[in-house]
Design goal:
Blueprint (H helix, E strand, L loop, with lengths): L9 E3 L14 H6 L8 E5 L7 E4 L1 H6 L7 E3 L3 E5 L6 E5 L11 E5 L22 H26 L1
Organism: Papaver somniferum
GO molecular function, one term: metal ion binding
Keywords: Glycoprotein, Membrane, Metal-binding, Transmembrane, Transmembrane helix
Length: 157
């Protein structure tokens, strides 16, 4: 379940099976079918008496051992934001045997695309006036000048 790409989406990890070794979910296959972005939310739903969620390093993820979790979640309904500060987020369940049986997921975050508006093309400059237009403007200016000069001379008498 995901919202439109321009908005943050909330993903239920494992879809309807949730976060459990009982659902026979390949969590990495599940994750690879999604495109995660900074601002999205991961929702882990599980039985807290049987499971947990630990955010771990890449090496802890690969070895299914936890030397120092980056974060620990225990509620059974955890909402974890993807902050975009890393290109991978690794989660495991550290109940005995769970990680080894596949209860782990590598969330790969898509690169952020700068939100830059496409600049509008430069407006074209109008073509120079045609010779007839230029002649008209010149003759109009000369006419106005002559009328002004004549009015000045008449007023001087």
């Amino acid at each position: 379940m995901a919202a439109a790409s321009s908005m943050a989406a909330t993903y239920r990890v494992g879809d309807t099976a949730g976060w459990s070794i009982m659902g026979d979910v390949d969590y990495n296959e599940w994750a690879s079918s999604k495109t995660f972005h900074a601002g999205d939310i991961l929702r882990f739903i599980y039985r807290p008496d049987l499971n947990n969620v630990l955010q771990v390093t890449s090496s802890d993820y690969e070895s299914c051992t936890v030397t120092a979790p980056l974060a620990t979640y225990l509620t059974g309904d955890d909402f974890i934001p993807i902050l975009g500060d890393d290109d991978h987020y690794y989660f495991i369940c550290d109940e005995p045997g769970h990680c080894e049986f596949g209860q782990k997921v590598d969330i790969q975050v898509a690169p952020q695309v700068p939100d830059v508006s496409t600049p509008s093309p430069p407006t074209s400059t109008p073509p120079p006036p045609s010779k007839s237009s230029a002649s008209y403007l010149l003759s109009s200016s000369v006419l106005v000048g002559l009328v002004g000069a004549a009015a000045y001379l008449i007023s001087m008498q």
